Model the fold of this input.
Amino acid sequence: MQKRDLIYEDFMEDRAIKMFKDDDLNYSVYVQVFTTDNLPFSPITGDKKHIFFDYDKAATDGVVISGVCGKEFNQATQRYEVTDHTYVVGKTVKQSLPEDRVLRLMKKAAHYIILELNKPVIMSTMKCRPHILNDLDRCTKLITDESVDLDDLSKETGIAKDILENYRKDPDLLKHASHDEIQELGAKYFDVFFNRNEIERFRFMMIKIIGAYLKENKGTAVAYDPAYELYRMCQEGDWHGLAKMEEIWRVMYASHE
Done:
């Protein structure tokens, strides 16, 4: 933060507030950012996209918000983080104003910036805690469904019918099933409870959403690379992987009001 002339320094709601005369015509205000704030930058990309901080609401008629200084990319967490020197920066719109008027304008702007930093991020409330099925849950749901014919299931999975009958009588026995049996029953679970046409629609929806995200973040490896792996899975049409994704999406969607 290299400024020619510090004209005001104080604390507002425990935040450091600094005001500078940049040159003979321009002034700027700096408002400290805390880790727990409604952050004015994306922790993933460091830019202003896809964040809850509203730059327009933080600005005033006399001061425009020019950005953020002092954020730091943490190599360990692969995230952009707040430091002791992270500030939201505002600059006066009009030039050659009297200094007492500039101070009033920038104090008002600091107040609006702090309101936005303090703004709680409103997330949709959950009606219930979502329960994500694991492989054992899926096998249990399949084997205990009376509409599933055990003769057919035996032929399709290669698991002896008497073993399947025992699993149906006592699903807890599945805890001791072999890895291959769990894999076969888990694959059959998706065949029984998921419609391939629905999965195809879900696949194309994901391709469209992730494709747009990749275009926005091309050149930013920390954001691009994980999303690209997901995009590739959708492109290749991994049936069971996509079915698992839709299952999770359904559960999370149903748990919200």
The chain is about 45% helix and 15% strand. The mean pLDDT is 90. Residues 196-216 form the longest helix (21 residues). The CA atoms of residues 50 and 121 lie 13 Å apart.
